[in-house]
Amino acid sequence: MKAAADKAVTLSGTLPERQKLNINYFNYVANNEMNKAQLMLNNWIKLYPHDYTPYARLMTFYLQRVMWDQAEEVGLKALENGHRGSLLYSLATIYISKKEFVKAEQYIEQYYDLYPHKSKDKSLLEKIYVGGRPDS
């Protein structure tokens, strides 16, 4: 994977900047240069605050390391910049992990309002109710 990622960076010279950023991110991850990957994502967000990709990648970066507060901070920043959709679902998941069930439920409801056809899937709400909602 490392060789493929290095080759992708080499061949990315004529691609649009955002595609280069994405390739560079995966190259840093493939080479286990996590500090560079994290820094690059933060810079990408500064350059393109209305591009959801770096927020999603950075949230995943933190979630994989069980860094709920940092993932939440990135998610809330994305929300401030107008992102919705799957971000609402991701924030709900983060709040379930943090056992902040009232906040989780609020984001799930916003998600269902945005995507009524997905409200049939109640699995995330079940996690809240099975979790006992200690903050209610």
Question: What's the SSE blueprint?
Answer:
Layout: H1 2-11, H2 17-30, H3 34-47, H4 52-64, H5 68-80, H6 86-97, H7 101-114, H8 123-130
Helix pairs in contact: 1-2, 2-3, 3-4, 4-5, 5-6, 6-7
How would you describe this protein?
The protein starts with a helix and ends in a 6-residue tail after the last helix. The protein is mainly α. It contains eight helices and no strands. The mean pLDDT is 86. The chain is 72% helix and 0% strand. The radius of gyration is 17 Å and the shape is elongated.
Characteristics:
8 helices; mainly alpha
Summarize the model shown.
This protein has 136 residues and is mainly alpha-helical. 72% of the residues lie in helices and 0% in strands. It is built from eight helices and no strands.
SSE-based structural type:
mainly alpha
* Major sheet details: none
Question: Order of helices and strands, N to C?
Answer: HHHHHHHH
User: Fraction of residues in helices?
Assistant: over 70%
- Low-confidence runs of at least 5 consecutive residues: none
- Note the beta-strand portion: under 5%
What's the number of helices?
8
Measured on Cα atoms, how large is the radius of gyration?
Answer: 17 Å
Number of strands: 0
Query: What's the shape?
Result: elongated
Oligomeric state of shown chains: single chain
- Overall mean confidence score, pLDDT: 86
Give the termini separation: 46 Å
